[in-house]
Design a protein that fits this description.
Helix content is 32%, strand content 15%. The chain contains ten helices and eight strands. The chain has an eight-stranded parallel sheet with strand order 2-1-3-8-7-4-5-6, with helices on both faces. Bound molecules: manganese (II) ion (2 copies).
């Protein structure tokens, strides 16, 4: 089957935008995929400003600008020679049927994982990670979580299910093991006495050396199956203004990329990049940061698995 990737002469911006201009949908192409990109254009669990439903589209468009570099600096291999990458498009759901969304994500992810695929999902608000974790835990057992965010998303206000409570519910459901999990970039209040996750708060993440941070993460997660969830508001609003709940005092894109590259060899089994809300973005800076982080995650996965 002919895909956009087979036609490098196409203008970068012609035809459909897919992530790194990879094949969209098409089941035959999916069978050749190691990693499947899926957009989850859902923002009905947002507590602040909405708009993350447009995130997948914005990240894909920004990723087109990264597609020309066959071998990405500073890696020493060509990503697409090493892994099969397919953009499966967005998971379609009806806003009027939002109660079904959680189960639909879980069922969709379960089918991909059963087929031996690895998922890199694009949010959507951060709530989408909960059904993704449920599917991944069914497949991989209890996982370690590496969570980049300004917020712990572990708020425990009764039985709320929204984009700030997934990591309260996930350990209770047995999906992740907090003893092997770490949150980085936190700069909002949380109840430290009862907090099961190790935290590298934003001050430490900005002041420690990259080596110290990487060592601390590696010590915590070991070689357990690792789900990596990246809320774009981990970045400072200077680097990611286009998000629903920005918080000052965050990390730079450059610092995040160095931390991620330092994690080569960790056992990533699932990934997401969430909370890009393009209506608040300037010059696509947030979407480009999210696309760049997603591409770095693909390299990180490729180093370990292919
Ligand atoms: Mn956040
Ligand atoms: Mn979050």
């Amino acid at each position: 089957m002919s895909t956009l990737a087979d036609h490098p002469d196409y203008s970068l911006y012609s035809n459909a935008n897919t992530f790194l201009r990879q094949a969209l949908d098409h089941r035959p192409a999916l069978s050749s995929a190691d990693v499947v990109i899926t957009g989850l254009p859902f923002d009905l669990a947002t507590t602040g400003r909405s708009g993350a439903r447009l995130g997948p589209d914005a990240v894909r468009r920004a990723s087109v600008n990264l597609a020309w570099e066959e071998k990405r600096w500073p890696w020493d291999f060509k990503l697409l020679e090493r892994i099969g990458l397919v953009d499966a498009g967005d998971l379609v759901f009806d806003c009027g049927e939002q109660a079904q969304f959680t189960q639909r994500v879980e069922d969709y992810a379960t089918s991909l994982l059963k087929a031996g695929k690895t998922m890199l999902s694009l949010g959507g608000d951060h709530f989408v990670t909960l059904p993704l974790l449920r599917a991944h835990a069914k497949h991989h057992g209890k996982m370690a979580l590496l969570h980049f965010d300004a917020h712990t998303d572990s708020y425990s206000a009764g039985s709320r299910y929204d984009h700030g409570t997934m990591f309260y519910h996930a350990p209770k459901e047995g999906l992740i093991d907090p003893a092997c999990s770490l949150q980085l970039g936190i700069r909002t209040d949380y109840e430290k006495a009862n907090h099961p996750f190790e935290v590298i708060n934003a001050d430490h993440a900005n002041n420690l050396s990259i080596e110290q941070i990487v060592q601390q993460i590696r010590q915590r997660i070991g070689d357990k199956p690792l789900y990596l969830s990246f809320d774009i508001d981990c970045l400072d609003p200077a680097y990611a203004p286009g998000t629903g709940t920005p918080v000052g005092g965050g990390l730079s894109t450059n610092r995040i990329l160095q931390i991620l590259r330092g994690l080569q060899g960790v056992n990533i089994i699932g990934m997401d990049v969430v909370e890009v809300a393009p209506a608040y973005d300037n010059s696509e800076v947030t979407a480009l940061a999210a696309a760049t982080i997603a591409v770095e995650l693909l390299h990180l996965w490729a180093v370990k698995h292919r």
